């Protein structure tokens, strides 16, 4: 049974599960701390692999052909506050994926940082956008407050990012390409 659980955790992190399977895994993660730790371990093991893969953007004609074949544009996508899973990406720092664009690989997620927590320094192979929703986040010595926006362009570097907020946590909306480190989007499905 442990091997099956390990395999399931890996498939979840890789995004290889159907919607009903993802929902079941999400419930298990909430109810079974050992299984949650297994998913987190897979996440940490697979994260470095995404840094080695250069993003490839297919021609626009490919997406147009896919849309035509499946019957038009995609419907609107919504995520409720209660949906999704917060994954710890660094001590005191959690990420919840909101959307993964299957064509471009761009991901949008919420990052929550406990007071005094830090996210390690990192490079940006692609652009990363950050919109602070709550709290104060210190990026490269500059404090960003609710409503503030910053973009790190491809090829840039971030020093350690810190939560400078004294309340329960700081929250930022992150949007980045598939190779970006900060959104830690390593092929995580949304639920």
Q: How would you explain this protein's 3D organization?
A:
With 191 residues, the protein is of the alpha+beta class. It has a domain of 116 residues: Jelly Rolls, CATH 2.60.120. The chain has four helices and twelve strands. Strand 1 and strand 2 form a beta hairpin. It starts with a helix and ends in a 15-residue tail after the last strand. The C terminus is likely disordered.
Oligomer: single chain
User: What is the makeup of the main sheet?
Assistant: 6 strands, antiparallel
Distance between the ends? 24 Å
Gross morphology: globular
Strand share of the residues? 25-35%
Question: What value does the Rg take, in angstroms?
Answer: 17 Å
Decide which structural class fits the backbone. alpha+beta
Low-confidence stretches: 178-191
Top CATH class of the domain at 76-191: Mainly Beta
At the fourth CATH level, what is the homologous superfamily of the domain at 76-191? Answer: Jelly Rolls
Q: For the largest sheet, list the strands in their spatial order.
A: 1-2-3-12-6-9
Topology as a string of helices (H) and strands (E): HHHHEEEEEEEEEEEE
CATH fold-level name of the domain at 76-191 = Jelly Rolls
Short note summarizing the structure:
The protein has four helices and twelve strands.
Write the layout of secondary structure elements.
Blueprint: H1 2-14, H2 19-31, H3 33-51, H4 60-70, E1 87-90, E2 93-100, E3 107-113, E4 118-119, E5 122-123, E6 128-134, E7 137-139, E8 142-144, E9 149-152, E10 157-158, E11 161-163, E12 170-176
Helix pairs in contact: 1-3, 2-3
């Amino acid at each position: 049974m442990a091997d099956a659980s390990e395999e399931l955790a890996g498939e979840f992190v890789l995004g290889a599960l159907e919607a009903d399977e993802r929902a079941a895994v999400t419930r298990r993660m909430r109810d079974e701390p050992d299984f949650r730790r297994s998913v987190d371990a897979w996440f940490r093991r697979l994260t470095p692999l995404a840094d080695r893969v250069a993003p490839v953007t297919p021609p626009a004609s490919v997406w147009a052909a896919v849309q035509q074949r499946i019957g038009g544009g995609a419907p609107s996508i919504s995520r409720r506050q209660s949906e999704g899973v917060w994954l710890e990406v660094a001590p005191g720092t959690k990420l919840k994926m909101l959307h993964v664009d299957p064509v471009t690989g761009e991901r949008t997620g919420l990052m929550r940082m406990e007071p005094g927590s830090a996210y390690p320094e990192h490079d940006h192979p692609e652009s990363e956008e950050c919109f602070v929703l709550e709290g104060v986040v210190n990026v490269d010595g500059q404090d960003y407050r609710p409503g503030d926006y910053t973009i790190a362009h491809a090829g840039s570097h971030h020093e350690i990012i810190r939560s400078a907020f004294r309340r329960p946590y700081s929250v930022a909306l992150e949007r980045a390409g598939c190779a970006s480190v900060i959104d830690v989007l390593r092929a995580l499905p949304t639920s």
